[in-house]
Amino acid sequence: MERILIDQIQENDGKKVLIKGRVLNMRNLGNIVFLIIQDYTGAIQVVFDKNTEAKTGDAVAIEGTAKKEIRSKYGFEIQGEKLEIVSNITEDLPFDLAKNDLNLNLSTLLDYRTLSLRHPKVQAIFKLYDILLKGYEITMREEKFTEIKTPKILGAATEGGANFFKVKYFDKEAALAQSPQFYKQIMVGVFERVFEIGPAFRAEPHFTTRHVNEYISLDAEAGFIKDFYDVVDILNRVIKKVFSIIEKEGKQYLDTHNIKISEVPDQIPRVKLAEIKKIIKEKYNYSIPEAIDIDPEGERLAGKYAKENFNSDFIFITHYPWSEKPFYTMPCEENPEETCGFDLLFKGLEIATGSQRIHAYKQLIENMEKKKIKPNGMEFYLDIFKYAMPPHGGWGIGSERLIQQILELGSIKEAILFPRDVKRLVP
Amino acid sequence: MERILIDQIQENDGKKVLIKGRVLNMRNLGNIVFLIIQDYTGAIQVVFDKNTEAKTGDAVAIEGTAKKEIRSKYGFEIQGEKLEIVSNITEDLPFDLAKNDLNLNLSTLLDYRTLSLRHPKVQAIFKLYDILLKGYEITMREEKFTEIKTPKILGAATEGGANFFKVKYFDKEAALAQSPQFYKQIMVGVFERVFEIGPAFRAEPHFTTRHVNEYISLDAEAGFIKDFYDVVDILNRVIKKVFSIIEKEGKQYLDTHNIKISEVPDQIPRVKLAEIKKIIKEKYNYSIPEAIDIDPEGERLAGKYAKENFNSDFIFITHYPWSEKPFYTMPCEENPEETCGFDLLFKGLEIATGSQRIHAYKQLIENMEKKKIKPNGMEFYLDIFKYAMPPHGGWGIGSERLIQQILELGSIKEAILFPRDVKRLVP
Questions:
Q1: Nearest-CA neighbor of A416 among A191, A49, A109, A33?
Q2: Beta-carbon contacts of residue A409 (< 8 Å; ≥ 6 apart)
Q3: How many CB pairs (< 8 A) connect A and B?
Q4: What domains can you pick out in chain A, each with its CATH number?
Q5: What is the mean pLDDT of residues A32-44?
Q6: Shortest CA distance from A189: residue in chain B
Q7: Quick check: B152 contacting A, CB < 8 Å?
Q8: Cα distance between residue B189 and residue A115, in whole Å
Q9: Distance CA A61, CA A381 (A)
């Protein structure tokens, strides 16, 4: 007999079927046993009118007859006839996966990650993550971007930055990529529009709910832009399309978390950083410290402002100061103390950052000198600007932060299968 | 005026258009100038009846009138009216990108990678790579696999193996993932079917045409398999679908390399390793050394055999010896000296490797003891087998090798944007 998947039960009403999956829960009333069986397409109740040998957690194969059952929350159930244990648990589960909520603290949730991932509510997070990846892949191709894969082992700590993880690379010292920045810019000279989905590594000793040391960045870079608002426009459109795909295909997983997905405006509000600082001071009486561009509380209030004034969960903050942005960021023509750089906030948290980049060799070298950055090891990148790079810009999206914010999870680590932080390298 | 892309010229016959792109080539006949302009959708000839300031390599914007031109290989051309230099080259290109072939040796090709990538024939390689990624993403979802992203920084050098790159991770020592093996198996317990596209790092000091130290692995793992032929069947189907997508969407790039894509049989021939060794000895009088499973010459001849006897560019070699396969590989029931492990060869080169895995805790531990592998640091992985893992198996495909073999490139490094080998960390 051929196995059917649980989401095919409906089409098999009244028929004899074979299903395979895991026993998520069971109730034994003596002469009648109720099993909830879960496979990767859903769950269903199976009723046996005799005892079975199965235990919660076992992997089983069940033959029985599918039938409509309006009293069941699944709409259907299976009258079980034969049960085979395909693989049995040999140790009790450390928690009850059948409860509506695991109610574990974050550190326990992650210590037992290999098992907590089996909980339906945790699974839902990563089903949505799968749809996010799919949505980005599809949308970027619709926008005529070419998918690229660039190296994660770099010859030198680039971008003039610290916070690189060091790798022993044969007899050399290498570093792990913090972003595909240089490579995606180089690729603008090749394909004009490129995107990459790949890991980024940051050796920053953070202990926050929104930082990890390894994450998946959704990058893009586009050439022949008129100005940096072109980049903002494309990102706006991409986010809108991706959200519509998540809404359409992820409904059941959003429901599991009682989340209604945010509407993405056709034109997400765009406010200059200097302006939003003023607004936050005036409206919410909060002063963002002078020395920094924006702090977490400032981001939260900027999000609040966007919601209250534009009914938008999103807001672009633009024109970040020259002093805070990397050397390749295009300074503003009107005011060289500001840049054509932006962040995208979603529910009061930065989820993407981007900018127009400098594309003329001379300007780039001058900007590096102003920032006192040495070209050592970056020559391969700098040289490309001698060869007619078009005006260009792009972004990086923190994929896990996006899921964190969609589902309003307490920590970004809940949105990563096996997160890496200062203390956590296992599992 | 709104820019149109070069692949939209046809729809604009007789109209005034604005295009943007790079000057790939130019001929100046005094009172008439021919420019070949390339954007990310194609190339077209532009004719000016006066001199222009553009040089080969410049990024330009051109206004003119689109018209049919049967004498042009592009089918259309543009009668140029206005040319604006968007960004100009300030240094001469080191080679002529307009030639049909770059004819550079591999090391020069890679030293000048940021520019050699602009050659149409090199671009074609990475357009096909983009389509390969797309094909795999789409096909795996059609097969109901969930896309996952697993960590690339690992807490310990796992799989009992050497050849890990070491990373300084705060006050700990960590290692770069050689494969997502443990994590994708763990995820079988969560989603039953998972796939991952991500980097894999191998610290092996190879100097061959088919090895690099960082590559993109197309991984998959599936649960509730009947036996390892289930895995072989799914992989067979996936390769067939992916190739049909590459054939359909990549025709122009295949043509650029004069390649007719291989037909993928519905059932790729499957031969046991012991059997193919015999065949190679008898048919081609070549003896694969006893001590190893199969060598490159053996693979080449196995490919030749598949072509001559089954008219197939593909062949599965199965039942690799227990002694050669990792500890998690399922031994054969009939003969424990052999495993349920296989390789897929394409045109005489291994492009994928896979197996059924051991899913019972006791058997796994016993197999490790037999192989004298210590569990240190792998407990998080081993423990999962106490919790009813279903029979499962999967594969890893070397994505760049697949492109290398499709296009019959001399080295895998030609199929990687910025390859990493023992000597090469830059660009």
A1: A109
A2: A125, A403, A415
A3: 250
A4: 6-87 (2.40.50.140), 120-415 (3.30.930.10)
A5: 94
A6: B118
A7: yes
A8: 8
A9: 57
Residues 6+ apart with CB under 8 A from B111: none
**With contacts defined as CB-CB under 8 Å, which chain B residues touch A88?**
388
What per-residue confidence (pLDDT) applies to A46?
97
Identity at A119, one-letter amino acid code: H
Rounded CA gap, B34 and B27, in Å? 5
CB-CB neighbors (< 8 A) of A93 in chain B: 387
DSSP A133-197: HHHHHHHHHHTTPEE----SEESS--TT-S-PPEEEETTEEEEE-S-SHHHHHHHHHHHSEEEEE
Mean pLDDT of A70-86: 93
Query: Angle CA(A223)–CA(A184)–CA(B251) in degrees, nearest 5?
Result: 80
With CB atoms and an 8 Å threshold, state whether A387 touches B360: no
Question: Are A193 and B169 inside 8 Å of each other by CB?
Answer: no
Q: What is the DSSP string of A42-70?
A: EEEEEEESS-----TT-EEEEEEEEEE-T
Rounded CA gap, B360 and B186, in Å?
A: 13
DSSP string of B402-425?
A: HHHHHHT-S-GGGGSSS--BTTB-
Cβ <8 Å between A58 and B384 = no
- The distance of Cα A162 from the centroid of its chain, to the nearest Å, equals 25
Could you tell me the mean pLDDT of each successive run of 10 residues in chain B, 427 residues long?
A: 94 97 93 94 94 94 96 91 96 92 96 96 98 98 98 77 88 94 98 98 92 97 97 98 98 97 98 97 94 93 98 98 95 95 98 98 97 91 98 98 98 98 95
Q: Beta strand B349-357 with B341-346: parallel, antiparallel or unpaired? A: antiparallel
CA-to-CA distance for B136 and B89, rounded, in angstroms? 38
CB A56 within 8 A of CB A26: yes
Q: Chain B 16-55, CB below 8 Å of chain A: which residues?
A: 20, 22, 39-41
CA distance A218 to A399: 6
Q: Is B306 in CB contact (< 8 Å) with chain A?
A: no
- Distance between CA atoms of residues A128 and B147, nearest Å: 10
Q: Are B182 and B385 in contact (CB under 8 A)?
A: no
Helix axes B120-142, A120-142, angle to 10 degrees: 150
- What b/e sequence results for A262-273 when a residue is b if at least 16 CB atoms lie within 10 Å of its CB, and e otherwise? bebbeebbbbbb
Type of residue numbered B234: I
The predicted model scores a pTM of 0.97
B7 token code pair: 């692949």
A96 inside 8 A of chain B by CB: no
Disruptive mutation site among A18, A40, A233 for chain B (greatest number of B CBs within 10 Å): A40
Q: Is the pLDDT of residue A159 over 60?
A: no
The answer to whether A183 contacts B123, with C-beta atoms less than 8 Å apart, is no
Pairing of strands A172-176, A166-169: antiparallel
